[in-house]
């Protein structure tokens, strides 16, 4: 499948080259054309016997058609195995997975009348593991088949979870070197500790004085810097990215939408071709975009519900058509969603505008220069056909965690809680953007598709955000406890075991403790290029 720069349709790439490069030369994102995706539509009834790996294979063969079957099998088996994914201890005690003999790395369980898709059973306890356990294999496979003798230098901006998942995925992978940039104070203690204690000879981690958007801007700027490109060429280094701007990150996320549908049918929770809805805690728009692509491929999806925290730039956009990043970035207890520039939205604009690269370039230029853009009504309507958007405040998020515990007996993390709250708002028919009475109060009216099924994407283990989760469900004074005591305390409340990668942090040595400014980070990358 050909991949095009979202900003210039004449910049075309093969899947392998796009995975190696990450970002297109003009700063656009590689994306298939919408008609090429739809030409590969499947009939869901033909997939009902698929286990996770079989569905993964089907999806990868569709998008990465320059990989051989053997290469794809190798990547899948290297990533999606019992060693990386511990699903034996999933909380799905009130829901039976049909494929008990075949590993489903993203099991489904019940939360009240709805479902949780548990995406956090990987090596770093967040959903990004699903893509980042396999991306290094795609990358090295692509690389080897090109017989290149260059080294790949992977630069990664993180709001907390991508960083550790990438460090874990690329650890000691030959011919690669990785640097992760995270914002000082923008990540949870456990996230920071996970990154600072990373092992491997080819990894490095730097805190940057700024927020996540600065980290992401830094990485994009380095890719498109001609001087740095020259230095790379001189040193036989090619830059790549583990961020969701890399198409190799996006495509693996399509799989679990399809597989969840299959398993809901097979366990008689839904009938074949019933439409279902997904609620996605959203930051960079990668996860939810994968859901839209699953829909384009033929998965019977009604709405994708975009859930934001107080940084509700996407809620505003989807409800009004204006994207405006000129606002304060709030630090919340769902830090992986503290983002004002959602990179993957660019791909959605490309697809829904019928691959209109000129329009996308114009909108992205406006975003860069004045910090905002507005789409026309036609495009907005297409967005609204597929997406609905809500946000939950910090206070609502905390109450959501308590409610899920008290009413549904589930302990959910702070990101999942945002989605949980947004689902409640959706079911109430709550839309503060359109429905006001004469006094300006929000009118709540019943939502149509109440009998449809709703699946919440649970993107992180509650243990990863233990302190904040505990504060919501326990009356004790948590502030006095250290993070590891918090883990144990949460373990006493929930029956789920503490993920090994988190309990092991206690005895690990801190290897990376550097904080640099934006400019210093750029210099560091230049220095590294000549050293690796
Ligand atoms: C990254 C992340 C998100 C947001 O996903 P996007 O693909 O960036 O929209 C949500 N929750 C958690 C726990 C994450 O790590």
Q: What small molecules does the structure contain?
A: pyridoxal-5'-phosphate
Gyration radius, in Å: 22 Å
Low-confidence spans: pLDDT under 50, at least 5 residues?
A: none
Question: What's the end-to-end separation, in Å?
Answer: 33 Å
Mean pLDDT: 92
Question: Which geometry do the CA atoms define?
Answer: globular
Q: Strand order of the main beta sheet, please?
A: 4-5-15-10-11-14
Helical element count?
Answer: 23
In percent, how helical is the residue content?
Answer: 40-55%
Task: Indicate the topology.
Blueprint: E1 3-5, E2 8-13, H1 15-21, E3 30-31, H2 34-38, H3 52-63, H4 69-79, E4 108-111, E5 114-118, H5 128-132, H6 135-145, E6 151-157, H7 161-170, E7 176-183, H8 189-196, E8 203-208, H9 212-223, H10 226-234, E9 237-241, H11 247-250, H12 252-266, E10 276-281, H13 286-296, E11 301-308, H14 313-320, E12 322-324, H15 345-352, H16 357-370, E13 372-374, H17 377-386, E14 387-391, H18 394-408, H19 414-428, E15 453-458, H20 466-473, H21 483-493, H22 500-503, E16 514-516, H23 518-531
Parallel strand pairs: 5-15, 6-7, 6-9, 7-8, 8-16, 10-11, 10-15, 11-14
Antiparallel strand pairs: 1-2, 1-3, 4-5, 12-13
Helix pairs in contact: 1-6, 3-4, 3-12, 4-6, 9-23, 12-13, 18-19, 18-20, 20-21
This protein binds pyridoxal-5'-phosphate (PLP).
Pyridoxal-5'-phosphate binds at residues 126-128, 161, 244, 281-287, 336-337, 415, 459-460.
Key features of this structure:
alpha/beta; 23 helices; 16 strands; single chain; 532 residues; 5-stranded parallel β-sheet; 6-stranded mixed β-sheet; 15% strand; binds pyridoxal-5'-phosphate
């Amino acid at each position: 499948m050909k991949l095009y720069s979202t900003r210039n349709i004449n910049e075309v790439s093969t899947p392998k080259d796009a995975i190696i490069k990450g970002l297109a030369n003009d700063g656009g994102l590689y994306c298939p054309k919408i008609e090429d995706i739809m030409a590969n539509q499947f009939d869901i009834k033909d997939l009902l016997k698929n286990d996770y790996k079989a569905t993964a294979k089907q999806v990868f063969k569709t998008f990465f058609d320059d990989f051989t079957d053997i290469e794809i099998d190798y990547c899948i088996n290297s990533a999606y195995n019992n060693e990386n994914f511990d699903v034996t201890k999933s909380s799905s005690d009130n829901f039976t997975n049909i494929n008990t003999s075949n590993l489903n790395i993203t099991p489904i369980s019940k939360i009240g009348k709805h479902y949780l898709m548990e995406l956090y059973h990987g090596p770093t306890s967040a959903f990004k593991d699903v893509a980042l356990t396999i991306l290094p294999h795609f990358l090295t496979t692509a690389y080897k088949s090109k017989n290149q003798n260059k080294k790949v230098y992977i630069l990664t901006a993180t709001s907390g979870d991508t960083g550790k998942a990438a460090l874990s995925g690329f650890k000691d992978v030959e011919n690669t070197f990785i640097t992760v940039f995270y914002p000082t104070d923008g990540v949870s203690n456990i996230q920071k500790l996970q990154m600072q204690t990373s092992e491997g000879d080819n990894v490095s981690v730097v805190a940057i004085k700024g927020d996540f958007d600065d980290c992401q801007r830094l990485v994009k700027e380095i890719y498109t810097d001609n001087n740095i490109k020259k230095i790379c060429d001189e040193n036989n280094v090619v830059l790549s990215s583990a961020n969701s701007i890399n198409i190799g990150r996006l495509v693996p996320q399509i799989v679990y939408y399809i597989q969840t549908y299959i398993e809901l049918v097979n366990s008689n929770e839904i009938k074949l071709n019933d439409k279902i809805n997904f609620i996605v805690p959203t930051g960079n728009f990668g996860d939810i975009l994968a859901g839209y692509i699953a829909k384009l491929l033929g998965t019977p999806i009604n709405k994708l519900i975009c859930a934001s925290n107080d940084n509700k730039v996407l809620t505003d956009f989807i409800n009004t058509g204006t994207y405006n990043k000129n606002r304060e970035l709030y630090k919340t207890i769902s830090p992986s969603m503290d983002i004002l520039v959602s990179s993957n939205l660019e791909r959605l604009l490309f697809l829904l505008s019928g691959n209109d690269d000129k329009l996308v370039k114009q909108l992205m230029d406006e975003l860069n220069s004045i910090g905002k853009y507005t789409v026309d009504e036609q495009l907005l309507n297409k967005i609204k056909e597929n997406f609905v958007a809500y946000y939950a405040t910090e206070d609502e998020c905390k109450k959501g965690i308590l409610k899920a515990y008290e009413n549904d007996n589930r302990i959910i993390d702070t990101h999942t809680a945002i989605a949980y709250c947004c689902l409640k708002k959706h079911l109430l028919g709550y839309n503060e953007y359109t429905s006001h009475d004469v006094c300006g109060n929000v009118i709540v009216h019943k939502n149509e598709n109440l009998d449809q099924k709703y699946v919440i994407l649970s993107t992180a283990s509650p243990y990863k955000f233990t302190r904040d989760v505990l504060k919501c469900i326990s009356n004790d004074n948590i502030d006095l406890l250290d993070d590891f005591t918090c883990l144990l305390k949460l373990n006493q409340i929930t029956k789920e075991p503490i993920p090994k990668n988190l309990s092991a942090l206690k005895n690990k040595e801190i290897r990376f403790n550097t904080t640099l400014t934006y400019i210093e980070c750029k210099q560091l990358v230049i220095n590294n290029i000549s050293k690796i």
